[in-house]
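pls design
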Protein backbone atom coordinates (compact mmCIF):
# COMPACT_ATOMS: atom_id res chain seq x y z
CA UNK A 1 0.00 0.00 0.00
CA UNK A 2 2.80 2.40 0.84
CA UNK A 3 4.48 1.90 -2.51
CA UNK A 4 1.21 2.20 -4.44
CA UNK A 5 0.34 5.50 -2.74
CA UNK A 6 3.87 6.95 -2.49
CA UNK A 7 3.34 7.26 1.25
CA UNK A 8 5.41 5.99 4.12
CA UNK A 9 4.08 3.75 6.88
CA UNK A 10 5.13 4.70 10.41
CA UNK A 11 4.51 1.94 12.96
CA UNK A 12 4.79 2.55 16.69
CA UNK A 13 5.91 -0.89 17.87
CA UNK A 14 5.33 0.06 21.52
CA UNK A 15 1.62 0.46 20.71
CA UNK A 16 1.24 -3.09 19.37
CA UNK A 17 -0.78 -5.00 21.97
CA UNK A 18 1.23 -8.06 23.01
CA UNK A 19 0.26 -10.13 26.01
CA UNK A 20 2.78 -10.71 28.77
CA UNK A 21 2.56 -14.44 27.97
CA UNK A 22 3.49 -13.82 24.34
CA UNK A 23 6.41 -11.59 25.31
CA UNK A 24 7.65 -14.06 27.93
CA UNK A 25 7.39 -17.07 25.63
CA UNK A 26 9.10 -15.27 22.77
CA UNK A 27 11.88 -14.17 25.12
CA UNK A 28 12.42 -17.72 26.40
CA UNK A 29 12.65 -19.03 22.84
CA UNK A 30 14.80 -16.17 21.58
CA UNK A 31 12.14 -15.04 19.10
CA UNK A 32 10.94 -11.63 18.06
CA UNK A 33 7.15 -11.75 18.64
CA UNK A 34 6.61 -9.47 15.65
CA UNK A 35 8.30 -11.92 13.28
CA UNK A 36 6.52 -15.17 14.06
CA UNK A 37 3.28 -16.60 12.69
CA UNK A 38 0.20 -15.43 14.51
CA UNK A 39 -3.40 -16.47 14.02
CA UNK A 40 -6.57 -14.67 14.89
CA UNK A 41 -5.32 -11.11 14.50
CA UNK A 42 -6.59 -8.30 12.30
CA UNK A 43 -4.69 -5.38 10.85
CA UNK A 44 -7.00 -2.82 9.29
CA UNK A 45 -6.28 0.35 7.39
CA UNK A 46 -9.01 2.94 7.88
CA UNK A 47 -9.31 6.63 7.11
CA UNK A 48 -7.86 8.74 9.91
CA UNK A 49 -11.24 10.40 10.39
CA UNK A 50 -12.77 6.98 11.11
CA UNK A 51 -10.00 5.56 13.31
CA UNK A 52 -11.52 6.29 16.71
CA UNK A 53 -14.94 5.03 15.64
CA UNK A 54 -13.41 1.80 14.29
CA UNK A 55 -11.42 1.28 17.49
CA UNK A 56 -14.51 1.84 19.62
CA UNK A 57 -16.40 -0.76 17.59
CA UNK A 58 -13.62 -3.35 17.91
CA UNK A 59 -13.12 -2.64 21.60
CA UNK A 60 -16.84 -3.19 22.10
CA UNK A 61 -16.35 -6.89 21.35
CA UNK A 62 -14.58 -9.16 23.88
CA UNK A 63 -12.08 -10.35 21.26
CA UNK A 64 -11.22 -6.76 20.33
CA UNK A 65 -10.74 -5.35 23.82
CA UNK A 66 -7.04 -4.70 23.13
CA UNK A 67 -7.53 -3.04 19.74
CA UNK A 68 -5.00 -0.27 19.22
CA UNK A 69 -3.93 2.33 16.73
CA UNK A 70 -0.35 1.34 15.94
CA UNK A 71 0.65 3.51 13.03
CA UNK A 72 -0.19 5.80 10.18
CA UNK A 73 0.58 6.54 6.57
CA UNK A 74 2.34 9.84 5.95
CA UNK A 75 4.18 11.72 3.26
CA UNK A 76 7.93 11.28 3.18
CA UNK A 77 10.79 12.44 1.03
CA UNK A 78 12.40 9.01 0.80
CA UNK A 79 10.91 5.67 -0.22
CA UNK A 80 10.09 3.19 2.56
CA UNK A 81 12.35 0.56 0.98
CA UNK A 82 15.53 2.66 1.06
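designed seq:
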Amino acid sequence: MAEATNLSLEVEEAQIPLSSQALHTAGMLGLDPLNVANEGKVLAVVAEADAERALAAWRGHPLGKDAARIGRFCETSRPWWS
